[in-house]
Amino acid sequence: MSVESGVFFGVQRADEEGRIKFVKTTEYDFTLDHLVRPGTHAFIFEDLTARILKANDFSRSAVKAALGSCGLYLTGEGY
């Protein structure tokens, strides 16, 4: 499959360059903690999953809950 322009053209090109890593749902927490949080990677997924992961991440840590903040950011962009 091939695209010639638009967002998915950029995704296809990034994949061809080895700049996309697909992860299983069982790897989401590890990916967030070890790749996304340090700032070296971005995590792109659909809206419902993003909201659930953000809520779970917030709830996972008593420190985060006590501070009332979460280190994850949800963009207003969509796909």
Key features?
4 helices
- Strand content is under 5%
Whole-Å distance between the termini? 18 Å
What is the N-to-C order of secondary-structure elements (H for helix, E for strand)? HHHH
Number of helical regions = 4
Name the helicity range. 40-55%
Low-confidence parts: none
Query: Structural class from helices and strands?
Result: mainly alpha
User: How many strands?
Assistant: 0
Average of the residue pLDDT scores: 77
Q: Judging from the principal axes of the Cα atoms, what is the shape? A: elongated
Quaternary structure type: single chain
Biggest sheet character: none
Rg calc: 15 Å
How does this structure look, described?
- Helix content is 49%, strand content 0%.
- With 79 residues, the chain is mainly alpha-helical.
Topology at a glance:
Elements (H helix, E strand, L loop, with lengths): L6 H10 L11 H9 L10 H14 L1 H6 L12
In short:
This protein is mostly helical. It has helices at residues 7-16, 28-36, 47-60, 62-67.
